[in-house]
Amino acid sequence: MAEFIDLDRLLAIGRVRGAVVAWRAGVAHDFAAFAARVADWAAAFANIDGVRVALYFDDSAEFAAALFGAWHAGKEAVLPADALPGTWHRLLGLVSASASDAGVVQGLPRVQPTASAPAPAVWPELDPQRIAEANANGAKA
Length: 141
Fold this sequence. Notes:
Order of helices and strands: HEEHEHEHEH
CATH topology: Rossmann fold
CATH class: Alpha Beta
Number of helices: 5
Number of domains: 1
CATH architecture: 3-Layer(aba) Sandwich
Mean pLDDT: 86
């Protein structure tokens, strides 16, 4: 039976060595690879101004890594329902950047993960209140 844990503690708790997180083209990707990819995304998001970022990925494993990376960088994720140009246009001014495998969004900085960003030795638990307080204190998109 699967063990359920709160998402805010997922990286802090970790998983057993070799635990499979995703399959891509028949290749297993383990928790260590996932955590490394989260670190790549967290480093990329830490370099942008603003609190809100739009995320849209067809690849669910990459989406999860980008989402956790955004959260660990203290960002609030906005999840558009689709990748249509009109949807992205409506997000201008509401988010400070985008991360997507659906292409470049005109007028919105695109976040690209850095290669091999060092992962923390110990991941902190996420603090949802921290982002809520940043937004309440007038942080821009």
